[in-house]
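Both lines are retained for reference:
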Amino acid sequence: LLSNHSRCGIRIKETMPDHLRDHRLGPHIVALGTGFFPNQSFASTFPDEPYVNTYRVGQLVADVPAIDVYLGSATGIPEFSGQPFQTVSDYQSFIRGSYENNATVAGVPADVLFNGGITLSPGDAIVQYFAGLRSDPASGNALNVVGPGAIEDYRPIPDYAQVRAVNGAAGSGSLNVFLVRPGETTASRPATFPLLDFGTTQATVIGAGGYDLVVRGADGSVLIGPERITLVETSRYSLLLSDTAGGGPPLEWVLDPTPI
């Protein structure tokens, strides 16, 4: 189901199978935006209640070893400090509201990689990935950093795992990402994450167990895999796809378990 969020221009894609919808707190949402998130709420609220929101960040800017992330202007102490390349932080809790949102080179607040805004709504668990290149040769060495994010579904699902894939490789083009059971081939089933463009994220619910990870480029060439992975029941993962450290190919991957 694809729809448009009129307030922010964010495309929302629901990927949870129909037979699992009774296991969740609310819609499983993928936000393909530029740092702004819809004002969604999974709980009843009252004006005087100081509801908090949990928020975490991922670092996929390949030519920057680590980033700082600020909720507000890029001054003072960052909310997330020194987040290393190809990692995702733990959750932190913040009071609901709308914030300016900045990512900078770690320890250099004047070197802003991303500037946007974010709305933290009661009860939401939000992940935001900062991805791309500080100096992109394909764009005349211009800054090319994006901040795709999503509201995460944090309720464990028996017999299943949840996987969120993000394409943080600036020069990758559109990727087709497959999770296939051992013995199967990519020719026998559609991509698990089809047409995953740079700066976008998709999520799915999938049976627990062993899989082969295969990533194909738009031309069908194999960029990754097959690589054997194991998905544990009720667990959640970020599948991080990025340039190699410093920028450029080969495409690299990290399967990062999400804290419960």
Observations:
- The chain has no helices and 20 strands.
- Confidence is low (pLDDT under 50) at residues 1-49.
